[in-house]
Amino acid sequence: MSEPLRVADGLYGVAVTDTGISKSAVDGSLTYRGYEIKQLFEKATFEECVYLVLEGRLPNRRELDAFTTDLKSHAALSRETQNLIGTLPADGHPMDVLRTAVSSLGVTERSLPAREQQISLIAKMPAFVANCYRIVRGMPAMEPRPDLSQGANLLYMLKGKLPSDFETWAFERELILYLEHDVNASTFTVRVVASTLADIYAAATAGLAALKGPLHGGANEAAMEMLLEVVEPDNAGTYVKDSLAGGKKIMGFGHRVYKKVDPRAQLSKQLLKRLLEEQGKDDKLYRLADALERAMWDAKTIPANLDFYAAPIFYSLSIPIHVYTPIFAASRMTGWIAHYNEQLMHNKLFRPDAVYVGPSDLTYVPIDKR
């Protein structure tokens, strides 16, 4: 047998599949189904983008209305699901609670047609995210309102009150940016699970597990905690210098694809400034983030990523920090499902090789002689 082909660690730069869903590029570009992200960010609704990523094209008015109605009809959590969430420990991270709750649908919804399972997963994510935070902390469950969009419902259920129109619009911009990002770690995980012909609930649960890590989805929480630690814009340079000297990773910076600019981060940066202005708040949080971004670029020539600027946007919307990664998941669920479906269209079981570097030619010794 010939030696396996050795590729870069982490599969960096290695194409593992074809996709027609999205593409990020080193030049700082990102497209969903051929549409440049800035167009969608400025002009589209979140539901339009969900339809686009899922179906491969933008919907017309009739299609969007029908799709939105379908989502709303599946948005509520069953009493059994709420009770299950209530049995979990109060100090559990919302991502762990969310992963458990989503996995449970593999039992309770197993008899639904495949398409309805997928719609149900997407539709339920706002209620899941909000209630996986609320219920385990002793707060009453919140029910989604049929008159609200996906983004508005998630904000409403997290805050316990109706958000303003601009808050909803700003929040949905971040959901659009988190919606899809080609073959990242969690999406690759979903495709690997799909290649075994496991159901969508198994694949989504695996995606959630991969997303939790601080080098992936968990970075937005760590980025916000860092901003709160630095406190003042004037502290940014010293913080970056001391952190790098001590070998501390500075969260919210760097990307395996974007080496000079993350287009999602720059759109979010502009949005943060506008949000603070609309809220009538001091722009200190914007100046702090900007100072850290410039200090990191000066020190390491590493750009800010989406998580770095999404974090202060969520914070300005009064969203608890521990819910930031679940919000990422609520949006990315659509991308995962699109990749799940694409994998099954021309499926081949993922089974990579490895270069063995362990010992060889060892001789077994009976246990009484070891």
Written description of the protein model:
By secondary structure, the protein is mainly alpha-helical. The chain folds into two domains: 204 residues, Citrate Synthase, domain 1 (Orthogonal Bundle), CATH 1.10.580.10; 98 residues, Cytochrome p450-Terp, domain 2, CATH 1.10.230.10. The protein contains 16 helices and three strands. The radius of gyration is 22 Å and the shape is globular.
- Share in β-strands: under 5%
The value of Rg in angstroms is: 22 Å
Can you name the CATH architecture of the largest domain? Orthogonal Bundle
Shape: globular
Structural class: mainly alpha
What share of residues is helical? 55-70%
CATH C-level category of the largest domain: Mainly Alpha
The number of helical segments is: 16
Spatial gap, N to C terminus? 35 Å
The main sheet comes to: 3 strands, antiparallel
Q: Looking across the biggest beta sheet, what order are the strands in? A: 1-2-3
CATH topology of the largest domain, by name, is Citrate Synthase, domain 1
Count of extended strands? 3
CATH superfamily annotation of the largest domain: Citrate Synthase, domain 1
Sketch the topology as an H/E string, one letter per element: EEEHHHHHHHHHHHHHHHH
Spans of at least 5 consecutive residues whose pLDDT stays below 50 are none
If you average the pLDDT, what whole number results? Answer: 95
Q: How many separate structural domains?
A: 2
